[in-house]
Amino acid sequence: TGSPASPQPVGGTVAWPRAPSAGAKFRVMQSADLASWTDVTSSATVTATQVSYTLPSAEAKMFVRLEVTTN
């Protein structure tokens, strides 16, 4: 068991587990072509246990990634 490295969207939302005690910083990035990435962290929802992002419904395809850095 455990969380997948590449979670699948559920109802148009991608969610990653979060451990606040890890002290990590993160950015949610979005791309239509895997070449150009846009920071969409301000549109993400952050709770004590997860980071989630709802994909734009108007896009035919969209990629999203979570960049994590430690302090």
Characterize the structure shown.
By secondary structure, this protein is mostly beta strands. The chain contains no helices and six strands. Helix content is 0%, strand content 42%. The mean pLDDT is 85. The strands form two sheets. Strands 1-5-4 form a three-stranded antiparallel sheet, with no helix packed on it. Strands 3-2-6 form a three-stranded antiparallel sheet, with no helix packed on it.
Descriptive keywords:
globular; 3-stranded antiparallel sheet; mainly beta; 71 residues; 0% helix
Q: Give the helix tally.
A: 0
Task: Output the radius of gyration.
Answer: 12 Å
Measured between the Cα atoms of the first and last residue, the distance is: 27 Å
Major sheet characteristics: 3 strands, antiparallel
Name the beta content range.
35-45%
Low-confidence residue ranges = none
Number of strands: 6
Strand-helix topology:
Blueprint: E1 13-17, E2 24-31, E3 38-39, E4 45-46, E5 50-54, E6 63-70
Antiparallel strand pairs: 1-5, 2-3, 2-6, 4-5
Short summary of the structure?
With 71 residues, this protein is mainly beta.
